[in-house]
Amino acid sequence: MMKKILFLLTLIVMASSCRISYSFRTASINYDLTKTLHIGHFVNQAPLVYPPLEQRFNEEMKDMFTRNTRLQLVNQNGDMEIEGEIVGYELTPMAVQEDAFASETKLTMTVRMRFRNNKTDAPEIEERISANRTFSSNTIFDNVQDQLMGELIDEIVDQIFNATMANW
Question: For 2-165, which CATH superfamily applies?
Fold first, then answer.
């Protein structure tokens, strides 16, 4: 009886001490080699200009890298550098109905991003990253624009983080 209790106690201790952890937002950075990051200001060059877009995008970029890496943000000459422009913010009618009016509208945001690691010989990465959301054409765009913009920014910033910091 005592052996069974001891066995169960040992099993419980072993099971509670094991932990499996998964994270899809981990950076694969050699912090001994790379200590600083410069994130250039992404200027809004999209034909359709929504004034809060540029500032909100730039703040989200800094927040993402500050929260998920130990890199120190610097104003220039970082060990790693990310820069680019917001090149698209546009509405496209979708799903045309019988009366020739669109039942849905798609909002698309596109960013051109360049990444350079000054501590390695890796070539510069340049990508166009897009995200989009659809909404009912019966909805007034001004009522959903801030929410949709936030979703697009989050998705694009996440894609930039994964393209530059994650080693998949």
Answer: Lipoprotein like domain (3.30.160.150)
- C-alpha 75/C-alpha 65 separation (Å) is 14
* 136: its two tokens: 């009912």
Give the pLDDT confidence of 93-126 residue by residue, as tens digits: 887 776 667 789 999 999 999 999 999 888 999 9
- Strand-pairing partners, residue 132, are 108
Distance CA 106, CA 109 (A): 10
Domain parsing of the chain, residue ranges = 2-165
- Confidence (pTM): 0.80
Single-letter residue type at 96:
V
Cα–Cα distance measured from residue 34 to residue 74, given in angstroms and rounded to the nearest whole number: 13
Nearest to 104 by CA among 143, 144, 133: 133
Question: Apex CA 102: angle with CA 100 and CA 46, to 5°?
Answer: 125
Angle of helix 52-68 versus helix 141-165 axis, rounded to 10:
40
